[in-house]
Amino acid sequence: MRGNFLTNIKNGKVMDSAGYRDRQHNNIGVYRKHGKSNQQFEIVYADEFPEEPKMGEMSKEWGFRSGEPFHVKSGLGEGRYLDILGRNMVIKTPNERKT
User: Fold this and answer.
1) Each residue of 10-59: pLDDT tens digit?
2) Is 39 helix (H, G, I), strand (E, B) or coil?
3) Which residue among 2, 7, 24, 57 is least packed, with the fewest CB closer than 10 Å?
4) Residue ranges of the domains in the chain?
């Protein structure tokens, strides 16, 4: 599920890795949609489904599985995930290594 944008439906702005930077703890903000990879994210569930979801397991309205933990993966090259650091949303590597 690559090439997806997390969009505010009221103003059309999307989540954006600030300055098109792919680095540890880079801030995430909202910006007008331009379509580059720093605005593309992928929903990755914590567990792997052994088969396709059955009817009723996926929210038709939102496209998420109800009650399942998940991560939001950046479309930039290093495979970083969204996280909260203090009062900021940032991208960082899953294993916390510094890059």
Assistant:
1) 899 999 998 988 888 889 999 999 999 999 988 777 665 445 445 446 66
2) helix
3) 2
4) 14-47+55-92
